[in-house]
């Protein structure tokens, strides 16, 4: 058994961590509390604050690094203050300040770590850099009580199928080009639909009205996926649809016209079927019957439904969280950072440089030994 | 390497602790193009409340970009100090 309390401050029986997340267009600040001892269903982490502000761009536009960084700079101190207000804690109570060290967009990451470094020095609280993906995985496990699941991590910047083995979260399969959320977001841009609350959510709502399936390329390559070709293909279909160009793919066998809702529906069905396929294969590889879905696309109810059908066939169980924990947030960074802190890790100031590329399997998972 | 252009910024803080913290927050990030520009942070030898930033680069453009970036970061640092310096033992309440 791992001892998580070797570094507990004398006279205390709990820990508090502040988590700062800003690797993409969401800025999140969270405060979490752990009681001493192993985390179990009877000894759960407590969320004291989980505040988020999302940089939302106009329809048809994505978020650019520079503008996103400006948004984060503008809000980060106010969000930290609001999190402290909500939690009713003092700086004195905090054991550690956790920040996202990567992967993500360089400028937004950097704009947040500046605040983390300054607060850490002002209040003399150690820092810890957290891998964003590990944040998602650990928070998902904590919220759902899943012990050793196959993890499907699907978001705007990442698509990975992950399983734990010997103190690493190992990547079994991943996208070879763009992430699934990026594919959905960019199609939303093609359709010029709203980015509020998120482009993926609006595609999901439109897809509910779709009923005709348009066949799209299906590009599973071993345990990996490729999605850029699918995007190109469906973008061309949408272009023909908007410009009333003749395209026999845009009429069903019964003569019905394909709508944008049908395209959203088809895109989701195709992409999610690919995800379900590699997830099922990963489950067979590692002999697991639990699936945990994390990341922003994990909120999608159709994805959860499709995955549930597959998992049911294998007599397994599916674990997913809601938007508070699926979509990027500060609390998951606080949680994963606190786990590392409890194992004695801290990040010295000169090693707090953020990195755009930071693979999930680079992190030694000291807090697990199963 | 010697560069053609240079710019020196002097940023006064309330005390030497703050100027040192600002240096600590800015200094870890590496310069993206070290063959085009260098940025050196130091504390003023006469007045320790002053943080000095020395830019030297091979064009005025790279200096402008780097200086802008440093100033943007300084805004976050100063806002952080305004809100939190000396308030470690305070419970914040909604204003």
Outline:
Chain A: Its main location: cytoplasm. Chain A has 370 residues and is of the alpha/beta class. In chain A, 40% of the residues lie in helices and 19% in strands.
Q: Can you describe this structure?
A:
The complex is a heterodimer of chains A (370) and B (95). Helix content of chain A is 40%, strand content 19%. Chain A is of the alpha/beta class. Chain A has 2 domains: 14-139 and 327-362, Nucleotidyltransferase, domain 5, CATH 3.30.420; 147-325, ATPase, nucleotide binding domain (Nucleotidyltransferase, domain 5), CATH 3.30.420. In chain A, strands 3-2-1-4-5 form a 5-stranded mixed beta sheet, sandwiched between helices. In chain A, strands 8-7-6-11-12 form a 5-stranded mixed beta sheet, sandwiched between helices. A two-stranded antiparallel sheet of chain A has the order 9-10. In chain A, a hairpin with a 2-residue loop joins strand 9 (220-221) and strand 10 (224-225). In chain A, helix 1 (65-87) runs parallel beside helix 2 (106-123), helix 4 (180-191) crosses helix 5 (199-208) and helix 4 runs parallel beside helix 6 (228-242). Chain B is α+β, with helices and mostly antiparallel strands and 95 residues long. Chain B has a single domain, classed as 2-Layer Sandwich (TATA-Binding Protein), CATH 3.30.310.50. In chain B, 38% of the residues lie in helices and 24% in strands. Chain B has 2 helices and 3 strands, in the order E-H-E-E-H. A 3-stranded antiparallel beta sheet of chain B has the order 1-3-2. In chain B, a hairpin with a 6-residue loop joins strand 2 (37-43) and strand 3. The longest helix of chain B has 25 residues, at 60-84. The radius of gyration of chain B is 15 Å and the shape is elongated. Chain B starts with a strand and ends in an 11-residue tail after the last helix.
């Amino acid at each position: 058994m791992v001892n998580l309390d070797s570094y507990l401050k004398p006279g205390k029986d709990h820990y508090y961590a502040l988590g700062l997340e800003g690797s993409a267009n969401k800025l999140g600040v969270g405060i979490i509390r752990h009681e001493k001892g192993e985390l179990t269903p009877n000894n759960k982490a407590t969320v004291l604050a989980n505040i988020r502000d999302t940089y939302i761009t106009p329809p048809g536009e994505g978020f650019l690094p520079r503008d996103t960084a400006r948004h984060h700079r503008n809000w980060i101190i106010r969000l930290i203050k609001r999190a402290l207000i909500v939690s009713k804690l003092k700086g004195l109570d905090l054991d550690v300040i956790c920040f996202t060290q990567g992967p993500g967009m360089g400028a937004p990451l950097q704009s947040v770590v500046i605040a983390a470094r300054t607060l850490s020095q002002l209040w003399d609280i150690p820092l810890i850099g957290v891998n964003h993906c590990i944040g998602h995985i650990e928070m998902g496990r904590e919220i759902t009580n899943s012990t050793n699941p196959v993890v499907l991590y699907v978001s705007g910047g990442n698509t990975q199928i992950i399983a734990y083995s010997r103190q690493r979260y190992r990547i079994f399969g991943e996208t070879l080009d763009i992430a699934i959320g990026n594919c959905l977001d960019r199609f939303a841009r093609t359709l010029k639909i709203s980015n509020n609350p998120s482009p993926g959510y609006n595609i999901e709502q439109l897809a509910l009205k779709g009923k005709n399936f348009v066949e799209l390329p299906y590009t599973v390559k071993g345990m990996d996926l490729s999605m850029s070709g699918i995007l190109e293909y469906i973008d061309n279909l949408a272009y023909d649809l908007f410009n009333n160009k003749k395209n026999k793919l845009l009429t069903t066998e019964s003569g019905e016209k394909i709508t944008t809702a049908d395209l959203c529906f088809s895109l989701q069905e195709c992409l999610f079927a690919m995800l379900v396929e590699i997830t099922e294969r990963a489950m067979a590889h590692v002999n697991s019957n639990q699936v945990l879905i994390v990341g922003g696309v994990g909120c999608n109810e159709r994805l959860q439904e499709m995955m549930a059908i597959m998992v049911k066939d294998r007599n397994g169980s599916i674990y997913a969280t809601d938007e508070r924990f699926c979509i990027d947030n500060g609390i998951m960074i606080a949680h994963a950072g606190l786990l590392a802190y409890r194992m004695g890790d801290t990040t010295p100031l000169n090693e707090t440089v953020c990195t755009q590329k930071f693979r999930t399997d680079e992190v030694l998972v000291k807090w697990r030994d199963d | 390497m010697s560069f053609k252009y240079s710019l020196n910024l002097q940023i006064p803080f309330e005390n030497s602790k703050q100027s040192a913290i600002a240096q600590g927050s800015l200094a870890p990030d590496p310069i993206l193009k070290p063959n085009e520009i260098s940025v050196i942070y130091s504390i003023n030898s006469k007045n320790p409340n002053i943080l000095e930033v020395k830019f030297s680069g091979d064009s005025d453009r790279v200096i402008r970009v780097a200086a802008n970036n440093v100033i943007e970061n300084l805004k976050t640092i100063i806002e952080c100090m305004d809100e939190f310096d000396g308030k470690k033992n305070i419970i914040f309440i909604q204003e």
